[in-house]
Write a structure and sequence with these properties.
Layout (H helix, E strand, L loop, with lengths): L8 E4 L7 E5 L17 H4 L9 H12 L3 E4 L21 E2 L2 E2 L8 H25 L5 E8 L2 E2 L2 E2 L4 E4 L5 H11 L6 E3 L11 H6 L4 E8 L6 H21 L1
Parallel strand pairs: 2-3, 2-6, 6-11, 9-10
Antiparallel strand pairs: 1-3, 4-5, 7-8, 9-11
Helix pairs in contact: 2-6, 4-6
Length: about 240
C-alpha cells in the first residue's frame, strides 16, 4: 500500500454494494522516514512483525469479489497498532514477538498523542463514516494474516475464524470453509478476542454481525495465492451473509 506521513488510511471501493464492510488493521509496514524504521532493519520491517504480510492484497481481492467497501490502516503496527484501544499497553509496542523496538522507547506524551492523532484516529473515523453513511452495511469483517511459526511452534491452521459471544457469522463461515476438505480451519486460532486482538470489531461491530479472518501468510506471498483465498473466502462470505 502506498503511504506517506499525510496519508494515514486507505479506502478502497467505497461505493461497493455488498452488505459487509471489510477492514484491514495491519495493511502496511509504513514508518515515516524521519523515524528511521524505529531502529529496525529492512528484513524485520518486511516481515510479519511489522505488518500482516499479504493481508492487504487479499483484502482488496476480496473486496472485488464481494463488491464490498474496504478500509485499511496505512501505518505499521510497530508505529501504532490500529487494532488496539488507545489505552492499551501495547498500542505502541516496546517489544513485538520478541523483537525490541528501539524507536518506541521513552516516547513522551506529545509524541504518543501525535501518533494517535495522525494514524489511529483517522482509520477509525473512516470506518465510522462509512458505517454512518451506509446503514445497509449489516456486517463487519477484518482481514489478517499470521506467521506459520511463532516462537518455534508451528501453526497448522490454513485459516482461522475469530469471534466473541456473537458467533452467528463465524459459525457459518467455519461451516462453509470446512466443506473445503483439505483446509485446516481454526476456531479462535491462532488468536482469540481474549488476546486483545478484537478492538476494531468491538468498536465498530456493535449491532452488526462480525468476525475476524486470519489466513496463514505463507499462502499469501504472491498475487495468485491472494486471489485463491479471495475466491474461497468470497464464496464462504456470500453463503454466510445470505443466511444471517
Amino acid at each position: 500500500m502506498p503511504a506517506d506521513a499525510h496519508r494515514p488510511i486507505d479506502v478502497y471501493n467505497p461505493s461497493g454494494r455488498a452488505t459487509v464492510l471489510l477492514v484491514c488493521d495491519h495493511a502496511s509496514n509504513f514508518i515515516p522516514e524521519p523515524l528511521a524504521g524505529l531502529g529496525l532493519g529492512p528484513e524485520q520491517l518486511s516481515d510479519h512483525v511489522a505488518w500482516d504480510v499479504g493481508a492487504w492484497g487479499l483484502a482488496r481481492e476480496l473486496a472485488d469479489v464481494l463488491d464490498a467497501p474496504l478500509v485499511g490502516a496505512a501505518a505499521s503496527r510497530l508505529l501504532i497498532d490500529a487494532n488496539r484501544d488507545p489505552d492499551a499497553p501495547d498500542l505502541i509496542p516496546l517489544m513485538a514477538e520478541g523483537v525490541p523496538i528501539p524507536g518506541n522507547r521513552q516516547l513522551d506524551e506529545a509524541e504518543r498523542a501525535a501518533r494517535i492523532r495522525d494514524y489511529h484516529q483517522p482509520f477509525h473515523r473512516a470506518i465510522e463514516a462509512i458505517l454512518r453513511d451506509r446503514p445497509a452495511l449489516s456486517a463487519v469483517v477484518s482481514v489478517h494474516s499470521f506467521t506459520p511459526v511463532l516462537f518455534g511452534k508451528a501453526r497448522p491452521w490454513h485459516v482461522g475464524i475469530l469471534h466473541d459471544d456473537d458467533c452467528r457469522l463465524a459459525d457459518l463461515l467455519i461451516e462453509q470453509l470446512e466443506r473445503q476438505t483439505p483446509l485446516c480451519v481454526g476456531r479462535n486460532q491462532p488468536y482469540a478476542p481474549d488476546d486483545g486482538v478484537y478492538y476494531t470489531l468491538d468498536r465498530h461491530g456493535r449491532g452488526r454481525a462480525k468476525a475476524m479472518i486470519e489466513v496463514r501468510n505463507d499462502q499469501l506471498r504472491d498475487s495468485a495465492g491472494q486471489r485463491r483465498w479471495a475466491g474461497l473466502l468470497g464464496d464462504a462470505l456470500h453463503g454466510a451473509l445470505a443466511r444471517i
